[in-house]
Design a protein that fits this description.
three-stranded antiparallel sheet, elongated
């Protein structure tokens, strides 16, 4: 019985550093971003240098904004000797939970100089207007 206790406490500690490798790797590959807001909208700027607009997919679902895409490699191997390459290529995905007052139906995006800026309008504040009357149709 003592051996089982020793093994069960040994194995989890051995694998602990590897437990979240997938999540850490995804964060490392995920493009850097920043978020801001003003009176009218939220803005998320995402660095996507070298990514074409047709290689980016932007969706809003259940108050989550998701940016997916791929940075394609354009290396020509013929006649060239490569010594090193620090550039990153491949697919990426980044998701952002939108605040409750964000209107996901009113989202727009612009890609300029390798920066994708996503603008999500804020819902108009109707709390100051008080109760709203709901019309009843005659049947």
């Amino acid at each position: 019985m003592v051996e089982k206790t020793q093994h069960s406490s040994f194995w989890p500690s051995l694998y602990e550093p590897l437990r979240n490798v997938g999540a850490r790797l995804a964060e490392w590959i995920a493009p850097p971003s920043e978020a801001s807001s003003d009176e009218d909208a939220y803005r998320i700027a995402i660095e996507l240098p070298g990514v074409a607009d047709e290689d980016i997919e932007l969706t809003v679902n259940d108050d989550v904004l998701t940016v997916k895409g791929e940075k394609k490699s354009v290396k020509e191997e013929e006649g060239r000797t490569w010594y090193f390459s620090e550039r990153q290529y491949g697919t990426f995905s980044r998701s952002f939970r939108l605040p409750p007052d964000a209107d996901g139906n009113k989202a727009s995006a612009e890609l300029k100089d390798g920066i994708l800026v996503v603008t999500v309008a804020k819902k108009k504040d109707t709390s100051a207007d008080g109760a709203k009357r709901v019309p009843i149709s005659k049947g």
